[in-house]
Amino acid sequence: MCHRWPPFAKLFAAIAMILAATCVPITHGPLVGIVACVIFFAHTLARIPLAYVGRRLLFFWPTLFLMAISLPLSQAGQKGWLLFVTILVRGTLSFSTALWLVNVMPFDQLLATLRRLRVPDVLLAILSLMYRFLFVLWDELDRMRIARSARLFRKPSLWETWRSAAHLVGRLLIRALDRADRIHGAMLSRGWDGRSRWIEQLREDRP
Amino acid sequence: MHIQDGVLSPVVCAATGAISLGAVGYSVHRLKQSVGDRTIPLTGMMAALVFAGQMVNFPIGAPVSGHLLGGVLAATVVGPWAGCVAMTLVLFVQWALFSDGGLFALGANVLHMAVIGSWGGHAVRLFVQRFIGDSRKGIVVGSVVAAWASVMAAAALFCLEFRLSWPPSEIDFSKVFTLMVSFHSLIGLGEALITGVAISFVLNQRPELISGSRRLSRGSSVETITRTLVAGLVIALTIAAFLSPFASNDADGLEAVLAMLNIDLNFTGSVPGLLEDYDKVPVPFAAWQSIAVSFAGIGGTLAVFVLAWLLGKALPAAPPSLSEAAGE
After folding, report:
1. Quick one: pLDDT band at residue B289, thresholds 50, 70, 90?
2. pLDDT at position B265, please?
3. Would you call B103 and A67 a contact, using CB atoms and an 8 Å cutoff?
4. Average of pLDDT values for B56-75?
5. How many CA atoms lie within 13 A of B52 on its CB side?
6. Cβ contact (<8 Å) for B5 and A87?
7. List of chain B residues whose C-beta atoms are within 8 Å of the C-beta of residue A81
C-alpha cells in the first residue's frame, strides 16, 4: 500500500527513517530496535519480498563489512569495535530504507517530485536523459563484452586485460559522444530550443 | 569508494553537503551560461557513460577488482562544469536506483568524486599541461597525474571528515589513516592507469573529441589564477594524505606498539589468521608505520610518473592537423 502514497510522503518517510537510523546512538539498544522494526514494517507494508532484500543485502554487506572491519583491525583489535558495530548497523538500516524507497517510488515519480522541490530544470533534463540512455549504454557494453570474449581464445595476461578494458571504456566513450550528437540532431529537428518542457500531472495521477 | 550513511556524523554530513551544494550549484550556473542547446544531451550522455564505465571490471588479484571512477575522464572530455554535474548525477542515480552510497553522505561523496574529481582534476591537468605543452602527450600525462592526485586528495579529505566525525578517545586515528592512505594509493594507481589508457585511446581514434584543453587554457587571467589555486589545493591535499597518518591524537607511538604486542594475550582466540599476521609484523621502532606510509607515498608518486612517461611515449607523434582541430 506504500506504493500509492503521495510521492512527497514517501520521500519524507524515507528521509525521516534514514535520519532516525543514523542519529540514534548505538548504545541505546531498544531505540535502535524500534527504528529497525519501523523500517521492517515499511518493507512488509510495501510487500517487498524478504528474499529480495536479503539478496541485495548479501551484495551490500561485504563492502560495508570491509570498510567497518578496517577500524578495529587497524587498532589491532583493541579499540574501535563499538564504531565497527555502529557503522554496520547504521549502514544496514539506511541501506534497507533506501531500498524501500527505490521499490515504492518509480524513477519518473522521483523526477516529478524533485521538480516540485524546485531542482533546476537543466539538472532534471540531464538526469532524465541520462536515465533514458543508461540502459542503452549498458546493453552496448554487454554486446562489446560478448564480442570481446568471442574473439579471445586464450587467457589474457593482466596487462592485456587492463588494456582491453580501458579500450572498452574508450570505445564506449566515442560511441556515446556520437550518439549524443545524433540525439542532439534529432532534438533540433523536433524543435528543441534549449528549454525543457514537462508533462505535468501525468505521473502524479497514475497510481 | 562510496561512503554509506552512518560512517560520518550528521554535522559533517551537513557541512560537506553545503559545500557540495554550492559547488554543484555554481557548476550548473556555468553550464547554463555556456552555449545552451547541445550541453544537455552531451552531459546526459557523459553521465550515462561514466555510470556504464564503472561497470567495467579491472581485475587486480583473484577476488579483488577495481573500476573506473571517471571524474577526470569526464572533465577532460566535456570540461569541468559539465563533468562535475555529470558525476553528481551519477552519484545521485547510484543512490536512487541501487541505494549505493548514503543519502546524507551524498554531499561527502559528491565532494570527493565530483568536485575534486572534475574541478580539481581539471585544474591539476591544466597545471601539468603548462609544463609539458598542450600536445597529446601533455593531455595524457596531465590526466594521469590528475587522476592519481584526485583520488589521493579525496582520501585526505575523507580522513579529515572521519577525524571530525568521531570523538578522539574512541580509536587511534593515525592507524586508520595509514590503512586508508595505503589502500587509496592503490586505487589511485588504478584510476590513473585506466584514465590514461582510455584517454590515449580516444586521442588516437578521435582526437577532435578531446579538444577542450586548448580553448579552456586560454581563459581570462582571473580564471587562470583560480585554476592554479584549485590545483594547488588539490596538490596540497594529496601531500596531506601522506601526512595524515602522522596526525596522531592521544596515544604516543610506544603505547601503540605495546598495545600491538599485547594482542596475543587477549585476542588471538576470535580472529586468529588475520590478527596473528598483523602481530608478526616486525616492529623495530615506533615510527615504522609512518615510514611505511612515506615509502608508499614516494613509491606511488614514482609509479605515477613512470606510468605517465610510458603512456606519453606510447602515443604516436601528433598529426599536424590536431592543433587546428583543437583550436576551433
Report:
1. low
2. 34
3. no
4. 74
5. 30
6. no
7. none
Phi, psi of A105 (to 5 degrees): -120, 105
Classify burial at B306, counting beta carbons within 10 Å of its beta carbon; exposed 0-12, middle 13-18, buried 19 or more: exposed
Q: List the grid coordinates of A74.
A: 587497524
Could you say which residues from 168 to 197 on chain B have a Cβ atom under 8 Å away from some Cβ of chain A?
A: 170-172, 175-176, 178-180, 183, 193-194, 197
B10-250+287-322 CATH: 1.10.1760.20
Quick count: other Cβ atoms within 10 Å of Cβ B9?
18
What distance in Å separates the CA atoms of residue B246 and residue B254, rounded to the nearest whole number?
14
DSSP A58-125: HHHHHHHHHHHHHHHHHTTTSS-HHHHHHHHHHHHHHHHHHHHHHHHS-HHHHHHHHHHTT--HHHHH
Distance CA A3, CA A9 (A): 11
And the C-alpha cell for B137?
602527450
Closest chain A CA to residue B51: A134
Mean pLDDT by 10 residues, chain A (207 residues): 76 82 75 78 79 83 76 67 80 85 82 82 85 88 87 78 84 88 87 71 54
Distance from CA of A13 to the nearest CA of B (A): 13
DSSP at A197? -
Residue in the structure block whose three cell numbers are 596526525: B247
**φ, ψ (nearest 5 deg) of residue B66:** -110, 175
**Phi, psi of A34, rounded to the nearest 5 degrees:** -65, -45
Domain ranges within chain B, ordered by starting residue: 10-250+287-322
| Amino acid letter, residue A77 | G
Q: What are the tens digits of pLDDT across the range B222-274? A: 666 777 777 777 777 777 666 666 554 444 433 444 444 443 333 333 333 33
Tell me what ipTM this predicted complex has. Answer: 0.84
Go through B250-277 and write b for each residue having 16 or more CB atoms within 10 A of its CB, e for each that does not. Answer: ebeeeebbebbeebeeebeeeeeeebee
